[in-house]
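User
Take a look at the entry that follows and flag anything odd:
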Amino acid sequence: MDKIYDLQGSQIKVTLEPKLVRVYSNASLWKYLDGKAGSRFKLLVEVIKTDYEEQFGQPLAISNDSLLVEILVHVYCDYLGLNFNRIVRVKWIQKLVKKLLKRAEVIDCGEKSIDSNRWVWDLLAGSKSLFIRILPKNLNARNIKQH
């Protein structure tokens, strides 16, 4: 079930499925996070989990911090890849990075029973503050995220 959450004037695209939420790392999400990633990630995660429980009648079995870190790391990888391709002008490397970026743009966050790497996000959840600090304050200052 596709959803659009209007948060702080940004349209955040999310898909809800049983045991899975899919968040889209697009220009709207980047705009939403701009300069206030800590509080805005927290709000986004709360909205997603509340809506999920309303839709499916049970809570999503992913901790808030684990979900937050998974989304954040994917956004950061998307950011790094786009910047890398602006600097490195070797066509075959850019092509490879573009393939990796496609995977970073759609963030599949599943419960342990369907997501084999949930343990990684659970493990990294304790470092949430560090990840928030390293995320650039103005993600799209150079207008690298077009869509």
Q: What stands out?
A: The first strand starts at residue 2 and ends at 7. The CA atoms of residues 20 and 137 lie 28 Å apart.
